[in-house]
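Structure (tokenized):
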């Protein structure tokens, strides 16, 4: 009783980080609502707080907080592998494309821990689009190891298939764009009016 749910450890890890790792979706939902209630209560008690612009809800700010290694709850949730928890975090504005200080994204953490469902969700939702190329190379390196299991191999194949599909889709879009340009054709020039003398002819 009386514990501050917004407290963090010396490493910057919060209750949200640990809930994300453990896949505690119900607790995350409760935390978000509880923190917002606390913030509203504190704003009523403090004129100073009430004057601060509310650019985002307190729960969203807490969900998006980073620890000292630059990891958000997205990194921890992707590592833990609970898809419902990842979805809740995304709904609260947590960025699943952001890399930590070591260059790891939630996608690479999901690959590292063999979280196939999370990898598939990140690809289909488009939340890790910018990180797919590097993540696919990382998955291929893991799959090439003798100790790689079936899950690692499936994840690597999934990423490679995604890259191939994205490549051909982009080629088709480029071809459609070129076809549209050819169909429209060049802009026609203004027709010359009959009976109008040129400047040289009138001189």
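Design, position by position:
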């Amino acid at each position: 009783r009386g514990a501050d749910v917004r407290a963090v450890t010396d490493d910057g890890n919060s209750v949200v980080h640990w809930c994300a790792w453990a896949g505690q979706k119900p607790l995350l939902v409760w935390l978000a609502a509880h923190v917002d209630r606390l913030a509203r209560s504190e704003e009523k008690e403090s004129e100073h707080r009430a004057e601060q612009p509310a650019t985002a809800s307190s729960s969203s700010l807490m969900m998006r907080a980073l620890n000292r290694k630059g990891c958000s709850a997205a990194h921890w949730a992707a590592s833990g592998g609970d898809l419902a928890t990842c979805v809740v975090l995304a709904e609260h504005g947590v960025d699943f494309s952001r890399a930590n200080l070591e260059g790891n994204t939630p996608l690479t953490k999901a690959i590292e821990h063999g979280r196939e469902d999370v990898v598939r969700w990140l690809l289909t939702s488009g939340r890790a689009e910018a990180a797919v190329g590097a993540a696919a190379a990382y998955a291929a390196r893991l799959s090439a190891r003798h100790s790689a299991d079936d899950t690692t191999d499936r994840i690597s194949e999934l990423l490679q298939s995604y890259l191939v599909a994205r490549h051909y889709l982009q080629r088709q879009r480029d071809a459609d764009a070129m076809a549209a340009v050819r169909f429209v054709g060049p802009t026609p020039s203004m027709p010359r009016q009959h009976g109008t003398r040129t400047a040289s002819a009138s001189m």
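Reviewer-requested clarification: Residues 198-203 have pLDDT under 50 and may be disordered. DSSP finds eleven helices and no strands in the chain.
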